[in-house]
Structures are given as C-alpha cells and as structure tokens.
C-alpha cells in the first residue's frame, strides 16, 4: 500500500495554511497587540510569508514551499521566547497555534508527498 497526498487534500492543507497565515498576519489588530513592536512585527512578517507561500503552493506545488512553511511554522512557535514577548498571552498563543498548524500540515504534506510505503517490514 502506498501513501500519497491527493490533490484535494493537498489543496485543503494549503487553504488551511493560508487561513493560519492570515490569522497570524491580522492578529495584532484583532487581539490588540499592534503596539508591541516585536510581537506585531513578527506576526505581520511571518503571517504574510506563510500566506504567500501557501498561496504559491495552491498554484504550483513544490516541496520547497512545504519546507519553507515548516520552517516558518517552527519559527512562529519559538518566536515568543526568542523575541521576548512570551508574557503577552494573546501574542504568544496566536504564534504557537498558527505555527503548529502550519508546521504540522507542512510536515504531513512532506511525509505523504513522495509515495513512500507505510512500512519497510
């Protein structure tokens, strides 16, 4: 039995990544931390990058987009502590949740995308 990620599922993953990226991008305004330079700047930059990469993957899938989104997702998860805004609960949680969603979906897409068998046994 081979596993592969169907076009419909890959599209759903990319749409979920677009939503997560937009959520992170817009979060400084709707969660009220736009005045916090590090938190808001990171949310705008990483959210925009996640969104653009996911949109690109919708039109022409390449493994590079998934690797880039995985890296951005992992960065979003650790950014609150690295950039020092972990005490801002709203900013910290939106980064962690959006980062995990994007990183996990990118990881599943990468794992499933090359038709490896489930087991070598």
From TrEMBL:
<feature type="transmembrane region" description="Helical">
    <location>
        <begin position="43"/>
        <end position="61"/>
    </location>
</feature>
<dbReference type="InterPro" id="IPR005530">
    <property type="entry name" value="SPW"/>
</dbReference>
<keyword id="KW-0472">Membrane</keyword>
<protein>
    <submittedName>
        <fullName>SPW repeat-containing protein</fullName>
    </submittedName>
</protein>
<keyword id="KW-1133">Transmembrane helix</keyword>
<feature type="transmembrane region" description="Helical">
    <location>
        <begin position="68"/>
        <end position="86"/>
    </location>
</feature>
<feature type="domain" description="SPW repeat-containing integral membrane">
    <location>
        <begin position="14"/>
        <end position="106"/>
    </location>
</feature>
<keyword id="KW-0812">Transmembrane</keyword>
<dbReference type="Pfam" id="PF03779">
    <property type="entry name" value="SPW"/>
</dbReference>
<feature type="transmembrane region" description="Helical">
    <location>
        <begin position="92"/>
        <end position="111"/>
    </location>
</feature>
<feature type="transmembrane region" description="Helical">
    <location>
        <begin position="12"/>
        <end position="31"/>
    </location>
</feature>
